[in-house]
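Q: What residues go here?
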C-alpha cells in the first residue's frame, strides 16, 4: 500500500480474456492505495475458486457487455478516482502515485496512460482515443515508438477502456445516461461527453501499462462499427450538423469501399443507427441541459458540485417531461 491522498475504485470487468484476470489483479494490488477498492464485475459465470471475494468486491452484472458491466460496477464504487482496467493489462509499479498528480487540476476529468505490448515495450499500442469528422474511433499514438518527441505530441480526447482513470464526481453527472453503444465505443463516448461538459483529459506518459495481446486492442479499434459512429454523431455533434455530417460520412465511406471492403461495411452500418434516434436525442438533450446549468453556476463564481448538478438536471428534465405530458 502507498500513501496517496485519493481513494481509488479499480473496476476490472471479466470480459475478453478472463484467463488474464490474475496477472491484472496482481499488478493493481501491488501498489493499491490505502482505503481503496477493487471491483471485479462479471456476467454471473465467474467462479471464485481462490476466495478473492474476501479481499475484492464482486459484482454480478448478468451480462457480458463491457458498457453494462462498467455501469453496474460504477454504482458500487465510492472512490475519488475510478480506474477501468481490462483483463490482459498490467499496471506499472507506482501507478497510483503517478496518476495522483494529474487530478490536482479540477478541470481534468480523465487521465490516459500508455499501453504497450509485452513483447515490444518501446512501441505504443494505444495512448488514449480520439475521433475525426466521421466520428470513427481512433487509437492515439498506435504503432509509434516511445520517443520523447512522440510523447510530447500525445493529445488524447480520453483514455481507452483497456486502461483509464476518471474523476468520480464528473462521472456522477452521467446518472440516467445510457451506455447502449457497442463496447469498443464506451471509452470514446465517455471522452466526448466529458469534453462537451468542459472537462479535459491528460496524457500520462510516465504510466506505461503492458498488455499481453496487443493485437486484440488493435483489432478492436479496426473493426467496422458504423452504427456506433453514426450514433456518436447524433449524441455529440451539434443538432444542426447531425443530418449533413451523417450523409457526408456515409458517402465518403461508400466511395472508399471501392478499394476497402471495411469502409463499405462501415458505411452500411450507419443505417442501423436510425432505430436509436429517440434514445440518442434524449442523451443529447440531457447533455445540453447539464452544460447550460453548469455554465450558469460558473458565471456566479460558485463552485460546481457535480453530484448536486446531476440531481438538479434530473429534476429539471423530469419536470419538463411532465409538462409535455399534461
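A:
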Amino acid at each position: 500500500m502507498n500513501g496517496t491522498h485519493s481513494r481509488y475504485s479499480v473496476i476490472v470487468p471479466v470480459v475478453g480474456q478472463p484467463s488474464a484476470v490474475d496477472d491484472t489483479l496482481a499488478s493493481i494490488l501491488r501498489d493499491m492505495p490505502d482505503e481503496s477498492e477493487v471491483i471485479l464485475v462479471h456476467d454471473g459465470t465467474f467462479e471464485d475458486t481462490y476466495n478473492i471475494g474476501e479481499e475484492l468486491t464482486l459484482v454480478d452484472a448478468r451480462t457480458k457487455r463491457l458498457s453494462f458491466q462498467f455501469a453496474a460496477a460504477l454504482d458500487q464504487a465510492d472512490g475519488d478516482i475510478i480506474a477501468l482496467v481490462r483483463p490482459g493489462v498490467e499496471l506499472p509499479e507506482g501507478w497510483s502515485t503517478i496518476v495522483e498528480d494529474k487530478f490536482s487540476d479540477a478541470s481534468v476529468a480523465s487521465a490516459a496512460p500508455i499501453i504497450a505490448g509485452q513483447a515490444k515495450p518501446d512501441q505504443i499500442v494505444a495512448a488514449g482515443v480520439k475521433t475525426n469528422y466521421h466520428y470513427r474511433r481512433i487509437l492515439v499514438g498506435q504503432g509509434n515508438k516511445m520517443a520523447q518527441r512522440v510523447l510530447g505530441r500525445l493529445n488524447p480526447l480520453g483514455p481507452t477502456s483497456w486502461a483509464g482513470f476518471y474523476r468520480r464526481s464528473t462521472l456522477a453527472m452521467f446518472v440516467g445516461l445510457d451506455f447502449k453503444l457497442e463496447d469498443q465505443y464506451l471509452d470514446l463516448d465517455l471522452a466526448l461527453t466529458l469534453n462537451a461538459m468542459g472537462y479535459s483529459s491528460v496524457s500520462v506518459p510516465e504510466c506505461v501499462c503492458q498488455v499481453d495481446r496487443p493485437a486484440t486492442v488493435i483489432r478492436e479499434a479496426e473493426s467496422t462499427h458504423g452504427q456506433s459512429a453514426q450514433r456518436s454523431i447524433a449524441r455529440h455533434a451539434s443538432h444542426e450538423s447531425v443530418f449533413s455530417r451523417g450523409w457526408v460520412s456515409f458517402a465518403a465511406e461508400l466511395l472508399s469501399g471501392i478499394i476497402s471492403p471495411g469502409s463499405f461495411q462501415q458505411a452500411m452500418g450507419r443505417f442501423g443507427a436510425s432505430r436509436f434516434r429517440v434514445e440518442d436525442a434524449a442523451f443529447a438533450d440531457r447533455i445540453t441541459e447539464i452544460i447550460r446549468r453548469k455554465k450558469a453556476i460558473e458565471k456566479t463564481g460558485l463552485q460546481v458540485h457535480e453530484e448536486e448538478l446531476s440531481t438538479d438536471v434530473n429534476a429539471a428534465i423530469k419536470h419538463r417531461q411532465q409538462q409535455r405530458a399534461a
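A: Context that may help when evaluating the design: Residues 277-299 form the longest helix (23 residues). The two ends are 56 Å apart (CA to CA).
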